[in-house]
Amino acid sequence: KDITSRADGDVLALPKVQCPNHPDAMLVEDYRAGDMICPECGLVVGDRVIDVGSEWRTFTNEKATKDPSRVGDAQNPLLNGGDLTTMISKGTGAASFDEFGNSKYQNRRTMSSSDRAMLNAFKEITTMADRINLPRNIIDRTNNLFKQVYEQKSLKGRANDAIASACLYIACRQEGVPRTFKEICAVSRISKKEIGRCFKLILKALETSVDLITTGDFMSRFCSNLGLPKQVQMAATYIARKAVELDLVPGRSPISVAAAAIYMASQASAEKKTQKEIGDIAGVADVTIRQSYRLIYPRAADLFPPDFKFDTPVDKLPLL
Amino acid sequence: MEQNNSLPPFQGLASPQGALTPVMPMFSPMMPYGSGLTPQPVTNTNSLSLLEEQQRQQQQHGMPGGSGQTPQLYHSQTVTTTTLPGNTPLYNTTPLTPMTPITPATPASESSGIVPQLQNIVSTVNLGCKLDLKTIALRARNAEYNPKRFAAVIMRIREPRTTALIFSSGKMVCTGAKSEEQSRLAARKYARVVQKLGFPAKFLDFKIQNMVGSCDVKFPIRLEGLVLTHQQFSSYEPELFPGLIYRMIKPRIVLLIFVSGKVVLTGAKVRGEIYEAFENIYPILKGFRKTT
């Protein structure tokens, strides 16, 4: 029997499906065929169980763009505040337009007015990060930071774009791949001053801190942008680190020291780069590179790594 | 000025910051405060001689601190242990009866021997009557007025070399003086100028709003180390500004600390705050002295 009805008149008795031979066995549900199967003897006990799977079959070799199993946008509910609203979309048939050609049902505007600004900011963050090819994890971290700052409302008066840019800067720092303020400026419409201000305000508001930047953080990026080989990059990293250890450049920004180190390393190798080129990539003025270079030049011989192959010997390095 | 309540460091109690009982000021600068709001150096004071010193100081300094006295006076040449220059006269403490237990003497930590020099004082005063800026600008010497750029007359005098912003409401801001007395004098001079031009100027609510001091600790400082240990107070972003910005909480002062050893202190309302802040920061900076 599939459904047993209780004869003792128990009103609340729900029909219990059980295998007649093994009443204690937990039935296994096979949703494909819609059966409830007894695991002990294999008897199909209940059939015509409602199938809660999808109505259409999905093939994995089809284009991943349209996934028919999904019935909504793949939103990130954590960031959005759980947007479970339903919108009425634009009509498609002829009946949805009234006599003048305007669509009859117009109200599509206010989907989530409270977080509209936040969504806008997320879009802006993605755009900015895209310009400098930042990976998804940094974008996610930035979005999280922005959400925290936005909910706190302590920086409410500031432009959202400024907050977003500063969050992007902080996220890059926190992930261990800092970007200079100038690099963030290049992809944002906000000035460096404003980003710097928002940066300090956000750190205070979220009560976090970031690590100090070092010269090595930027070496790989600057050197590959300049097209310098790995040897030169390693030499420049070593030079910059040594220069800071020996305190040859007190008070100089690590970016300037890094740029000067790259200049020295490239001038000693076959791939010579001018100060102007390095300044363009690093966002440092070439006079600044000159200043820092003058400080490290006297100890040039000590700064190079021991196994470096000199194309131009140390004493022939340019004195600029 | 700050009322500094002190507690023996090893008891680890948070000092009741709001307590109004005046306590001997000599404990203030070098004593580690349990609250963690003031930077914690590792020194201790020689209490006995401080008591004597404080008594002596009270007899010496009759006037309130900072009334145009030159910094040398605050040196109290005989001091070998910590004394807070300029603080003592405002405390009418009962000597020899400490409210809080004195720490037993450990070898004296000297005061730094360096006194920050005041560089700028900003003060405001209310002249008490509405002013016509146009007539002031036309008739007074050394006055500029560009209403499209800024809605005040900018007047300068040579004697205490200062600049004043005079607003049409009658309020005035005086900047550039090097001491409190000079600032007051300059403000009075500006008021007299305005009075001579025919306005019924008074001299109401003169108040010093900000004092800036600077000094040199004479040794280079490792800012990276300082920002690591005092993260909640420091902000060091070489990309943004070459100095470390230290926001001290106990006297609410902002210090700009540079690699060369120069220190700028600002945000004080009274001279003693600058001195106190410097005495607080000096032992910490000594700990981050560059050794090469």
Automatic annotation (TrEMBL), chain A:
Reactions it catalyzes: L-lysyl-[protein] + acetyl-CoA = N(6)-acetyl-L-lysyl-[protein] + CoA + H(+)
Q: CDD domains under this entry?
A: CYCLIN_TFIIB_rpt1 (cd20551), CYCLIN_TFIIB_rpt2 (cd20552)
Sequence ranges assigned to domain TFIIB-type in this UniProt record: 15-46
What are this entry's molecular-function GO terms? promoter-specific chromatin binding; protein-lysine-acetyltransferase activity; RNA polymerase II core promoter sequence-specific DNA binding; RNA polymerase II general transcription initiation factor activity; TBP-class protein binding; zinc ion binding
| GO BP term, pick one | transcriptional start site selection at RNA polymerase II promoter
For this protein, the record's InterPro entries field holds:
Cyclin-like_dom, Cyclin-like_sf, TFIIB, TFIIB_CS, TFIIB_cyclin, Znf_TFIIB
Q: Which family does it belong to?
A: Belongs to the TFIIB family.
The kind of enzyme this is, by top-level EC class, is transferase
The UniProt entry, under SUPFAM superfamilies, shows:
Cyclin-like, Zinc beta-ribbon
Q: Major location, coarse class?
A: nucleus
Name of the gene: GTF2B
The EC designation for this entry is: 2.3.1.48
Q: What does this protein do?
A: General transcription factor that plays a role in transcription initiation by RNA polymerase II (Pol II). Involved in the pre-initiation complex (PIC) formation and Pol II recruitment at promoter DNA. Together with the TATA box-bound TBP forms the core initiation complex and provides a bridge between TBP and the Pol II-TFIIF complex. Released from the PIC early following the onset of transcription during the initiation and elongation transition and reassociates with TBP during the next transcription cycle. Associates with chromatin to core promoter-specific regions.
- Keywords for the protein's UniProt record, in alphabetical order: Acyltransferase, Chromosome, DNA-binding, Metal-binding, Nucleus, Repeat, Transcription, Transcription regulation, Transferase, Zinc, Zinc-finger
What name does this protein carry?
Answer: Transcription initiation factor IIB
Automatic annotation (TrEMBL), chain B:
- MF (Gene Ontology): DNA binding
Keyword Transmembrane helix set for record? no
Q: Give the UniProt entry's GO cellular component terms.
A: nucleus
| This protein's record includes keyword Signal | no
The principal localisation class reads nucleus
Q: Name one Pfam family in it.
A: TBP
User: What is the name attached to this protein's record?
Assistant: TATA-box-binding protein
Q: Which family does it belong to?
A: Belongs to the TBP family.
> Which SUPFAM superfamilies does this entry report, sorted A to Z?
TATA-box binding protein-like
Question: What HAMAP family does the database record attribute to this sequence?
Answer: TATA_bind_prot_arch
Task: Please name the source species.
Answer: Esox lucius
Q: Where in the cell is it found?
A: Nucleus
- Chain spans, region Disordered: 53-73
Task: Write down the PROSITE patterns for this protein, in alphabetical order.
Answer: TFIID
GO BP annotation list: DNA-templated transcription initiation
Write out the entry's keywords from A to Z: DNA-binding, Nucleus, Transcription
